[in-house]
């Protein structure tokens, strides 16, 4: 894996997790929860969001497929016709 790409991906995952945690903590505070409960809600969401966004970004990379040469299809090849 390329170093700059890994660094960019990690930065993006943690930034999205931070934003999700801040949003959850802010919403909990607006709902009337106290500061400790709002902070705990934000930290819990941020922890779960790291795993979620890491898997989400990784799954997008796994779905990219190599281009198939022109004139060939999946059904052609040895033993397929």
Instruction: Tell me, rounded to a whole number, the average pLDDT.
Output: 83
Radius of gyration: 21 Å
Distance between the termini: 38 Å
**Fraction of residues in helix:** 55-70%
Largest sheet: none
Tally the helices: 2
Give me the secondary-structure category. Answer: mainly alpha
How much strand content do the residues show? under 5%
What spatial form do the alpha-carbon principal axes imply? elongated
Provide structural commentary.
By secondary structure, this protein is mostly helical. The protein is 69% helix and 0% strand. The chain contains two helices and no strands. Helix 1 (3-30) packs antiparallel against helix 2. The protein is elongated and about 65 Å long. The two termini are 38 Å apart. 10% of the residues are buried. The mean pLDDT is 83.
Topology summary:
Blueprint: H1 3-30, H2 35-62
Helix pairs in contact: 1-2
Outline of the structure:
With 81 residues, the chain is mostly helical.
What tags apply to this protein structure?
81 residues, mainly alpha, 2 helices
């Amino acid at each position: 894996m390329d170093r700059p790409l890994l660094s960019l991906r990690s930065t993006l995952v943690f930034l999205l997790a931070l934003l999700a945690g801040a949003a959850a903590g802010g919403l909990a505070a607006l709902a009337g929860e106290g500061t400790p409960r709002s902070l705990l809600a934000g930290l819990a969401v941020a922890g779960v969001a790291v795993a979620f966004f890491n898997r989400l970004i990784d799954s997008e990379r796994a779905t990219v497929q190599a281009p198939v040469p022109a004139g060939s299809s999946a059904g052609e090849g040895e033993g397929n016709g």
